[in-house]
Amino acid sequence: MRKHGMPDVHVSHPNVTPLIDIVMCLIIFFMLVARIGVATGVDHNIKLPKSNIGMALSDLGNTITLNVSQVGMSPKVSARDPAIGEDRVFNLPADSGTLVTFMKTLRGTNDLFKVIIRADKSTPYRCIEPVLQACASANVKDYNFETEKQEGEEVAQ
Amino acid sequence: MKLASAKKVHYDSGPNMTPLVDVVMVILIFLMLTGTFAGATHYLKSNVPVISKGGAQVVDSKSTGDTLVEIRITGRDSLNVYVGSTQFTDQRQLAAALKAVRQNKLADGTKDDNIQAIIAPGAETNTQVLIQVFAATTAAEFKKIAFSSAR
Q1: Per residue in B86-97, pLDDT tens?
Q2: Residue B57: predicted pLDDT
């Protein structure tokens, strides 16, 4: 009688191929949505004021972002110049004319041109007023204050 | 004499995937921690430039026949606002009062496009207070909001 030995026990290791597929998909997702090292002209040192009401801007293509802060007693405005790809700094009031020329150049004949003002929450109004004056001189018809969303109910129903 | 173990079939287990999974997980965690999604910000919109009182005028709203509603900010770091002679220190109450003012103007026959809200801050009023007043004016549904020169 032929003896049959016990068959060998095969330890089946888990198939990791689907796991790698999913992880690769997640990596590609985060690489696409994450913004690392993308220069948008935003000064992250500025602490924005908070508001519990506001709107989203649908078209950010015709915009320029002005970062407004206070240096000593004078306002400082920085903005990304799309022509040279670098930030430009305007120390007001000395550079008011340069700022107006800069915005006029960017605006051209585009009536949809918008200015986004990012002012630090502690910046006094006397530092913001020259920026608004420059916007008016450059014939900017649409300007927006960027604020942080504040949790809570809206101000008015 | 052949040994029994020589007859065992050797299965090819393939490359070891564990280090690959480890590296991929590290990259994934790096991207999750360093990436920044769209910030939680929104915008308060204005489409009327600053109005000067006297001197060189940027916009002369009086020549357009607009009805002016002046909102004076006297506080520097805190909300202290006057609409007419009424003082407000609460943003909700300010918004409600401004809404009532606007409704009264509309009831008087003034068109919505001819009602001009003017925010008159002090020179030292900080941006946070300015934004609170701006938000209250926006909540009151004024279509035209402008800023006056610093007092």
Answers
A1: 999 999 999 999
A2: 38
Residues of B in contact with A24 (CB under 8 A): 24
The pTM is what?
0.72
With beta carbons less than 8 A apart as the criterion, state whether B123 and A124 touch. yes
Distance from CA of A46 to the nearest CA of B (A): 12
Contact list, A54 vs chain B (CB under 8 Å): 41-44, 135
* DSSP string computed for B88-148: E--HHHHHHHHHHHHHHHHHTT--GGGEEEEEE--TT-BHHHHHHHHHHHHHTT-SEEEEB
B7 CB near a chain A CB, below 8 Å? no
Helix B18-34, helix A17-33: angle, nearest 10: 20
Give the whole-angstrom CA distance, residue A70 versus residue A77.
9
Give exposure, A26-57, as e/b (b: 16+ Cβ within 10 Å).
bbeebeeebeeeeeebbbeebbbbbbbbbeeb
* 3-class DSSP assignment, residue A18: helix
DSSP secondary structure of A79-110:
EEETTTTEEEEEETTTTHHHHHHHHHHHHTT-
Given A49, A136, A141, which is nearest B131 (Cβ)?
A49
- Whether B44 and A51 lie within 8 Å, measured CB to CB: yes
Please name the amino acid found at residue B47: N
Task: Please give the ipTM for the structure prediction.
Answer: 0.71
The 10s digit of each residue's pLDDT in A22-47 is 888 888 888 887 766 556 667 778 88
Q: List beta partners, residue B145.
A: B117
CB B141 within 8 A of CB B113: no
Distance from CA of B76 to the nearest CA of A (A): 8
